[in-house]
Amino acid sequence: MRLELQYLPCLEYFTCILQYDRIHVDIEERYVKQTYRNRCKVLTTNKIDVLTVPVKSYEAGCLTRDVKIDYNQDWVRRHLGCFKSAYGKSPFYEFYAPGLLRIYQKNFAFLVDLNYELLTFCLKLVGVKKEVMYNLSGEINKSECVVNDISLINNRKGTNLFKYYQPIPYYQTFGNDFVSNLSIVDLLFNMGPEAKSVLLRSCKSQ
User: Fold this and answer.
1) Which end of the chain has less Cβ packing within 10 Å, N or C?
2) pTM of the model
Protein backbone atom coordinates (compact mmCIF):
# COMPACT_ATOMS: atom_id res chain seq x y z
CA MET A 1 0.00 0.00 0.00
CA ARG A 2 1.33 3.41 -1.01
CA LEU A 3 0.05 6.56 0.71
CA GLU A 4 1.12 10.14 1.22
CA LEU A 5 1.95 11.35 4.73
CA GLN A 6 -0.89 13.24 6.37
CA TYR A 7 -1.05 15.47 9.43
CA LEU A 8 -2.83 13.70 12.32
CA PRO A 9 -4.76 11.67 9.74
CA CYS A 10 -8.49 11.07 9.57
CA LEU A 11 -10.08 7.75 10.48
CA GLU A 12 -10.23 6.54 6.87
CA TYR A 13 -6.44 6.75 6.71
CA PHE A 14 -6.19 4.40 9.69
CA THR A 15 -8.84 1.98 8.46
CA CYS A 16 -6.86 1.83 5.23
CA ILE A 17 -3.65 1.00 7.12
CA LEU A 18 -5.45 -1.74 9.04
CA GLN A 19 -6.25 -3.56 5.80
CA TYR A 20 -2.65 -3.89 4.55
CA ASP A 21 0.42 -5.55 6.01
CA ARG A 22 2.99 -3.06 4.74
CA ILE A 23 2.54 0.68 4.26
CA HIS A 24 4.84 2.81 2.09
CA VAL A 25 4.53 6.53 2.76
CA ASP A 26 5.84 8.28 -0.31
CA ILE A 27 7.79 11.45 0.48
CA GLU A 28 8.79 12.09 -3.12
CA GLU A 29 5.29 12.54 -4.42
CA ARG A 30 4.32 16.02 -5.58
CA TYR A 31 3.09 18.20 -2.73
CA VAL A 32 -0.54 19.27 -3.07
CA LYS A 33 -1.68 22.30 -1.09
CA GLN A 34 -4.90 22.56 0.90
CA THR A 35 -5.05 18.82 1.58
CA TYR A 36 -4.70 16.56 4.60
CA ARG A 37 -0.93 16.68 4.07
CA ASN A 38 -0.81 19.71 6.37
CA ARG A 39 -4.27 19.91 7.95
CA CYS A 40 -6.73 17.96 10.05
CA LYS A 41 -10.28 18.34 11.35
CA VAL A 42 -11.35 18.31 14.99
CA LEU A 43 -14.69 18.83 16.70
CA THR A 44 -14.95 21.91 18.93
CA THR A 45 -17.82 23.41 20.91
CA ASN A 46 -19.64 24.97 18.00
CA LYS A 47 -18.20 23.51 14.83
CA ILE A 48 -15.63 21.42 13.00
CA ASP A 49 -12.33 23.25 13.18
CA VAL A 50 -9.65 22.83 10.53
CA LEU A 51 -6.12 23.00 11.93
CA THR A 52 -3.42 23.84 9.40
CA VAL A 53 0.35 23.57 9.65
CA PRO A 54 1.67 26.60 7.74
CA VAL A 55 4.47 25.87 5.29
CA LYS A 56 7.12 28.06 3.75
CA SER A 57 6.78 29.09 0.12
CA TYR A 58 7.76 26.45 -2.39
CA GLU A 59 8.05 26.09 -6.14
CA ALA A 60 5.39 24.46 -8.27
CA GLY A 61 5.91 20.72 -8.45
CA CYS A 62 7.80 20.66 -5.16
CA LEU A 63 8.33 17.22 -3.62
CA THR A 64 6.63 16.63 -0.28
CA ARG A 65 9.95 15.79 1.37
CA ASP A 66 11.22 19.33 0.66
CA VAL A 67 8.32 21.24 2.22
CA LYS A 68 9.39 23.17 5.31
CA ILE A 69 7.22 24.26 8.23
CA ASP A 70 6.75 27.99 8.80
CA TYR A 71 7.31 28.79 12.47
CA ASN A 72 6.89 32.53 11.93
CA GLN A 73 3.21 31.84 12.52
CA ASP A 74 2.14 30.84 16.04
CA TRP A 75 0.43 27.69 14.86
CA VAL A 76 1.76 25.28 17.52
CA ARG A 77 0.12 27.27 20.34
CA ARG A 78 -3.13 27.40 18.35
CA HIS A 79 -3.19 23.66 17.69
CA LEU A 80 -2.36 22.69 21.27
CA GLY A 81 -4.86 25.24 22.57
CA CYS A 82 -7.53 23.87 20.29
CA PHE A 83 -6.86 20.31 21.49
CA LYS A 84 -7.21 21.43 25.10
CA SER A 85 -10.35 23.44 24.40
CA ALA A 86 -11.97 20.68 22.37
CA TYR A 87 -10.84 17.64 24.34
CA GLY A 88 -9.65 18.87 27.74
CA LYS A 89 -12.68 17.27 29.38
CA SER A 90 -12.57 14.12 27.27
CA PRO A 91 -11.85 10.89 29.14
CA PHE A 92 -8.34 10.29 27.82
CA TYR A 93 -6.97 13.78 27.12
CA GLU A 94 -4.70 13.85 30.18
CA PHE A 95 -3.16 10.52 29.21
CA TYR A 96 -2.28 11.36 25.60
CA ALA A 97 -1.77 15.12 25.47
CA PRO A 98 1.71 15.10 27.10
CA GLY A 99 3.02 12.78 24.38
CA LEU A 100 1.72 15.06 21.66
CA LEU A 101 3.27 18.08 23.38
CA ARG A 102 6.70 16.42 23.39
CA ILE A 103 6.48 15.89 19.63
CA TYR A 104 5.56 19.51 18.92
CA GLN A 105 8.41 20.70 21.14
CA LYS A 106 10.90 19.07 18.76
CA ASN A 107 10.25 21.85 16.22
CA PHE A 108 10.80 19.70 13.14
CA ALA A 109 12.01 21.70 10.15
CA PHE A 110 10.28 19.52 7.56
CA LEU A 111 6.59 18.66 7.38
CA VAL A 112 7.23 14.99 6.59
CA ASP A 113 9.23 14.54 9.80
CA LEU A 114 6.48 16.02 11.95
CA ASN A 115 3.82 13.96 10.18
CA TYR A 116 5.79 10.73 10.44
CA GLU A 117 6.46 11.22 14.16
CA LEU A 118 2.78 11.94 14.83
CA LEU A 119 1.67 8.97 12.73
CA THR A 120 4.04 6.62 14.57
CA PHE A 121 2.84 7.96 17.92
CA CYS A 122 -0.84 7.55 17.05
CA LEU A 123 -0.36 4.05 15.66
CA LYS A 124 1.30 3.08 18.95
CA LEU A 125 -1.57 4.52 20.99
CA VAL A 126 -4.13 2.73 18.85
CA GLY A 127 -2.16 -0.50 19.18
CA VAL A 128 -1.66 -1.05 15.47
CA LYS A 129 1.57 -2.84 14.64
CA LYS A 130 2.26 -2.40 10.97
CA GLU A 131 5.38 -2.01 8.87
CA VAL A 132 5.23 1.68 7.98
CA MET A 133 8.21 3.11 6.11
CA TYR A 134 9.35 6.07 4.09
CA ASN A 135 9.48 5.22 0.42
CA LEU A 136 11.01 7.28 -2.35
CA SER A 137 8.99 7.22 -5.56
CA GLY A 138 11.85 5.78 -7.58
CA GLU A 139 12.27 2.88 -5.16
CA ILE A 140 8.69 1.71 -5.04
CA ASN A 141 8.06 -1.77 -6.37
CA LYS A 142 6.16 -1.40 -9.62
CA SER A 143 4.54 -4.78 -9.16
CA GLU A 144 0.79 -4.93 -9.64
CA CYS A 145 0.44 -6.05 -6.02
CA VAL A 146 1.40 -2.56 -4.81
CA VAL A 147 -1.78 -0.53 -4.36
CA ASN A 148 -1.31 3.17 -5.04
CA ASP A 149 -3.79 5.30 -3.11
CA ILE A 150 -1.89 8.60 -3.17
CA SER A 151 -4.40 11.44 -2.63
CA LEU A 152 -7.37 9.04 -2.53
CA ILE A 153 -8.04 9.87 1.12
CA ASN A 154 -8.66 13.58 0.92
CA ASN A 155 -10.66 16.43 2.39
CA ARG A 156 -12.56 17.21 -0.79
CA LYS A 157 -14.76 14.15 -0.97
CA GLY A 158 -18.45 14.30 -0.26
CA THR A 159 -20.08 12.52 2.66
CA ASN A 160 -19.90 8.72 2.62
CA LEU A 161 -17.62 8.56 -0.43
CA PHE A 162 -15.14 6.35 1.38
CA LYS A 163 -13.18 3.41 0.01
CA TYR A 164 -11.93 2.04 3.33
CA TYR A 165 -14.17 3.59 5.98
CA GLN A 166 -17.75 3.10 7.13
CA PRO A 167 -18.74 5.50 9.93
CA ILE A 168 -19.35 3.77 13.26
CA PRO A 169 -20.58 6.24 15.91
CA TYR A 170 -18.59 6.57 19.14
CA TYR A 171 -18.72 8.95 22.09
CA GLN A 172 -17.81 12.55 21.21
CA THR A 173 -17.53 15.37 23.73
CA PHE A 174 -19.63 17.92 21.86
CA GLY A 175 -22.97 17.74 20.13
CA ASN A 176 -25.73 15.20 19.83
CA ASP A 177 -25.02 14.35 16.19
CA PHE A 178 -22.04 12.12 15.46
CA VAL A 179 -19.41 13.63 13.15
CA SER A 180 -17.52 11.03 11.12
CA ASN A 181 -13.97 10.82 9.80
CA LEU A 182 -12.34 13.45 11.99
CA SER A 183 -8.67 13.38 12.94
CA ILE A 184 -7.48 10.33 14.86
CA VAL A 185 -7.02 12.56 17.93
CA ASP A 186 -10.81 12.85 18.24
CA LEU A 187 -11.11 9.08 18.54
CA LEU A 188 -8.09 8.73 20.84
CA PHE A 189 -9.05 11.46 23.29
CA ASN A 190 -12.65 10.23 23.49
CA MET A 191 -12.25 6.46 23.38
CA GLY A 192 -8.69 5.70 24.52
CA PRO A 193 -7.92 1.95 24.48
CA GLU A 194 -11.20 1.28 22.67
CA ALA A 195 -10.00 3.24 19.63
CA LYS A 196 -8.70 0.15 17.85
CA SER A 197 -12.00 -1.66 18.29
CA VAL A 198 -13.84 1.30 16.77
CA LEU A 199 -11.43 1.38 13.82
CA LEU A 200 -11.76 -2.34 13.18
CA ARG A 201 -15.55 -2.06 13.12
CA SER A 202 -15.21 0.96 10.84
CA CYS A 203 -13.24 -0.93 8.17
CA LYS A 204 -15.22 -1.08 4.95
CA SER A 205 -15.19 -4.48 3.25
CA GLN A 206 -13.23 -4.48 0.01
Assistant:
1) C
2) 0.92
Length of the chain: 206
185 CB contacts (<8 Å, ≥6 apart)? Answer: 8, 40, 42, 83, 87, 96, 100, 122
Q: Is the dihedral of CA 73, 4, 50, 42 positive or negative?
A: negative
Cα dist from 58 to 91, 150, 196, whole Å: 40, 20, 37
Q: How far apart are CA 186 and CA 183, in angstroms?
A: 6
Residues 70-85: what's their mean pLDDT?
A: 97
Decide if 67 contacts 110 (C-beta within 8 A): yes
* C-alpha to C-alpha distances, 87 to 38, 140, 182, 183, 206, nearest whole angstrom: 21, 39, 13, 12, 33
Contact (Cβ atoms closer than 8 angstroms) between residue 45 and residue 153: no
Helix (H) / strand (E) containing 131: strand 131-135
Q: How many C-beta atoms lie closer than 10 Å to residue 20's C-beta? A: 17
Local confidence band at 144 (pLDDT 50, 70, 90 cut-offs)? very low
- List, in sequence order, every residue forming a beta bridge with 30; answer none if it has no partner: 63
- Model confidence at 206: pLDDT above 70: no
